[in-house]
Amino acid sequence: MVTSQKGKDGGFGRAARHFFKRTFGKKPGTIVFNTLLYLFFLLITVIMLYPFLYVLIKSLQTRELIDGESQIVLTLAAYGTVLDDSSYITAFVTTIVVLVIKVVLALLVSFMIAYPLSKHYFKGRKFYLVFLMITMLFSGGMIPNYILITQVLEWRNSYLVYIFPGLVGAYNVFVIKSFLQGIPDSLEEAALLDGANPFVILFFIYVPLSGPIMATIGLWVGVSVMNNWMSGVLYITDANKRLIQNLLRDILLTASSTDVGGWGGDSELMAMAENVKMASIVIGILPIVIMYPFVQKYFIKGMLVGSVKG
Fold first, then answer.
1. Where are the domains of the chain?
2. Cβ-contact 81, 200 below 8 angstroms
3. Facing residues of 73 across strands?
4. Superfamily name and number for 79-308
5. Taking a C-beta distance cutoff of 8 angstroms, is the pair 173, 114 a contact?
6. pTM over the 0.85 mark
7. Where are the alpha helices (DSSP H) in 228-285?
8. What is the pLDDT of residues 57-99, one digit of tens each?
9. Do the beta carbons of residue 121 and residue 110 sit within 8 Å?
10. Which of 234, 248, 260 is nearest to 284 (CA)?
11. Which of 2, 128, 262, 277 has the CB geometry, 3.0–4.6 Å to 255, for a possible disulfide?
């Protein structure tokens, strides 16, 4: 029994030493460098996670009188208050619908533009590439965009202002084009020899192989939708058509006010102002938090390959 226990301890010790050498290295200088490197990235991780943890904890905390003393307790009351607000639910659903539609359309249109531009035999390829490059360098500005959307297209108080402006980004097209150029031409040549037409080659060869870059671009577009509060400020006056970020802005401004009347005279809700703010933020970031784990395995590969390939 003693020998067996020593054997187990010895095996554990060897595994620990192997893990330490593999992680920190063997030479003293390498061990010191890797230790400092890990501590640095650990510090960066803590700095990045702290705001999220702070908001989450604050959303669960509230003060209640227990035995005549004010104490901090954990409760989901703030989330109940937010979810009971029909305007918040409407804004949340609107944001999800807009996000899904814009991501799907952006991927479809961007891929349709990038695919022919990735082919060297495409006529006029250089002209269109220069045209796309110009759109990255120059912009009409806010005033022309405002006139175009409100007076020419007449999209004021329309959901279209969330979807079509900025639907296709030149940078996204270039990234997808670079990724497609990394796919061997021999696949297309073999398919042509087998009698496949261009649509079969596109949808059964290139589209399935483009999962990493499509997930990457989809995440970028989704984040841009969640960050787009300016469109709601400029073009939307109907409260029922606001996105979640515009409603969050109103909640934060109202909750920061000391005017109880701003909360409809509800003193209990005013006491929960900080919790309501934090709970609103937590619920508001849920779409991206939920979406990211599904695309994370493709994100790094798609971003690196699409950005490096020429």
1. 2-75, 79-308
2. no
3. 62
4. MetI-like (1.10.3720.10)
5. yes
6. no
7. 230-235, 244-255, 267-271, 273-284
8. 888 887 766 666 667 777 888 888 788 878 888 888 899 999 9
9. no
10. 248
11. 277
